[in-house]
Amino acid sequence: MTLIVIIVLVVIAVVVLALVAIYNSLVKRRNQVDNSWSQIDVQLRRRHDLIPNLVEAVKDYMEFEQETLTRVTEARNMAVAAEQRGPEAQAQAENMLSDALKSLFAVAENYPDLKANQNVMSLQEELTATENKISFARQFYNDSVLTYNNKIQTVPSNLVAGLFNFTARQYFEAPEAAREVPKVDLR
Prior knowledge:
It is a single chain. This protein has helices spanning 2-59, 66-81, 87-108, 112-116, 118-153, 157-163, 176-179. The chain has 187 residues and is mainly alpha-helical.
């Protein structure tokens, strides 16, 4: 009788240890997703802080381009407001901001004095570096989400995930326009 009790206790201990290990693994993955999101947030905040300086620096040169400057400012404000609504809303707002910045840089090409302004060039370089950091942070975030989502959807960890309400996370996706292959005409 004692041998059966010992075997049952060992089996229970193994099951409990397995559940604890799976739970801890899920928590680590979830925390990695949260950490990778905060890395994106740091870069986005840096970007948001640089934009008013850029708009202010180009405002005097681009007196006839107020619509472009207004679009950039509005897109920045929408991106800041989207911070609390999750990755999907944030990605959409940030993509609109990226489009507005592209328009600003395209219009700035028409102003030789603006292109020669050291302050504007410096801000553009900082924004470009920040965009690269955002891109890397998005990639790391999406990799973390993939690992986490796979973990909560595969056996046996999906049983523990369901028991403790671990839910899937959203990817930080690029806009449809960024996925299109650019057309090249060499005529």
